[in-house]
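Thread amino acids onto this structure.
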């Protein structure tokens, strides 16, 4: 298969219809084991590129910088211009008061460290990893704008856990007034069970020409179909080891959605994970969902979601499977 390309929001840059997220690269689990080491990371990146993928997502704190280092090592053997690289800044990287957030001091320090680890002169997309209510919007928007003017960054984005449409609007209105680069991409959590961005947030993105690149498209694994209503979670699964996750996801309403996903999966001869991803790939308000994988076979299975054509009836059935979602 070969992934198709789509516009990166309302920019002139083209990206793969499915992005590859690298948050597992260099990450140590509770047993202090590296989930994806450098060799595995390079194999995954090779497989993604072989499928026509060009949109790679990372962050300065993934694997404490190892994710960017692995990507940089891999890029050194390829043509940098073939890929669209996104990274993020916000979370702590130093044990001091200025080692986190969106202050000018932290942003300036981190952008140079990101570029150094990636071995590149610029990144295509820089997200603020979360909102910083302790730093004035004027300060971080001006600093981010300078990164664009200096050629270190091409576009700006904002990543969020909870909907914060008014904050993004405030920042972009200020950018318009001052002549700064605005946020052109949003990275919210969004999938067929986590629907909190529907309504105001997605409508804001439409109105301000902001592309949407969702994270957690499989709801932390719930939408893979590994969980069964009324039964204990599989041993060593996330729901078996994380009570907060179990309480959030193993609900009657979410299993109703999973029932709809599994029904569609049977109709199109696909897995529940592929159907869940296909719902986002086919979503008119979504640019490209971000998938993560630990193995090449898992990556290829997820990428195959791009070949699934959902009918308008199937798409609507999935979209309305959770009547209590926020709007």
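Threaded sequence (327 positions):
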């Amino acid at each position: 298969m070969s992934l198709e390309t789509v516009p990166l929001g309302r920019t002139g840059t083209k990206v793969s219809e499915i992005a590859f997220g690298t948050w597992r690269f260099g990450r140590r689990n509770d047993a202090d084991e590296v989930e994806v080491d450098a060799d595995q990371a390079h194999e995954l990146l090779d497989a993604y590129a072989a499928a026509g993928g060009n949109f790679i997502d990372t962050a300065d704190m993934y694997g404490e910088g190892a994710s960017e280092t692995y990507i940089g090592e891999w890029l050194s053997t390829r043509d940098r211009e073939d890929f669209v690289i996104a990274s993020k800044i916000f979370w702590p990287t130093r044990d001091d008061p200025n080692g986190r957030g969106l202050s000018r001091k932290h942003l300036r320090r981190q952008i140079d460290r990101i570029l150094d680890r990636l071995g590149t002169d610029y990144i295509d997309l820089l997200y603020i990893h979360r909102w910083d209510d302790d730093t004035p919007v004027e300060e971080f928007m001006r600093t981010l704008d300078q990164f664009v003017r200096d050629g270190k960054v091409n576009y700006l984005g904002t990543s969020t856990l909870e909907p914060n449409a008014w904050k993004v609007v405030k920042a972009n209105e200020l950018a318009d007034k001052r002549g700064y680069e605005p946020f052109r991409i949003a990275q919210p959590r969004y999938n067929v069970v986590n629907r909190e961005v529907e309504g105001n947030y997605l409508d804001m993105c439409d109105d301000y020409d902001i592309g949407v690149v969702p994270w957690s498209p499989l709801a932390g694994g719930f939408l893979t179909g590994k969980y069964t209503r009324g039964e204990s979670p599989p041993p060593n699964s996330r729901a078996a080891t994380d009570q907060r996750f179990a309480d959030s996801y193993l609900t009657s309403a979410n299993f109703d959605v999973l029932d709809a996903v599994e029904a569609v999966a049977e109709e199109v001869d696909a897995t529940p994970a592929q159907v869940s991803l296909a719902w986002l790939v086919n979503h008119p308000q979504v640019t490209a969902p971000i998938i993560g994988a630990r193995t090449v076979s898992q990556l290829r299975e997820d990428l195959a979601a791009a070949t699934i054509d959902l009918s308008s009836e199937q798409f609507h059935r999935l979209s309305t499977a959770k009547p209590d979602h926020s709007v």
